[in-house]
Amino acid sequence: MQVLALAGGVGGAKLAAGLANLLGERLTVVVNTADDFEHLGFHISPDLDTVTYTLAGIANPATGWGLADESWQFMSQIERLGGPTWFSLGDRDVALHAMRTNKLRNKETLSSITSTISRSLGIQATILPMTDDCVQTFVRCDGQLLAFQEYFVRKKCEPIVSEIIFKGIETAQPNSELTTQLDLNRPITTIICPSNPYLSIDPILAVPGMRDWLIEVSDVIVAVSPIVAGSAIKGPAAKIMSEIGLEPSAATVCKHYEGLIDGFVVDSLDESITTSVGAPGPAIVALQTIMRSEADRTELAKECLAFAERLLVKVQQ
Amino acid sequence: MQVLALAGGVGGAKLAAGLANLLGERLTVVVNTADDFEHLGFHISPDLDTVTYTLAGIANPATGWGLADESWQFMSQIERLGGPTWFSLGDRDVALHAMRTNKLRNKETLSSITSTISRSLGIQATILPMTDDCVQTFVRCDGQLLAFQEYFVRKKCEPIVSEIIFKGIETAQPNSELTTQLDLNRPITTIICPSNPYLSIDPILAVPGMRDWLIEVSDVIVAVSPIVAGSAIKGPAAKIMSEIGLEPSAATVCKHYEGLIDGFVVDSLDESITTSVGAPGPAIVALQTIMRSEADRTELAKECLAFAERLLVKVQQ
Question: How much is the pTM?
Answer without folding.
Answer: 0.93
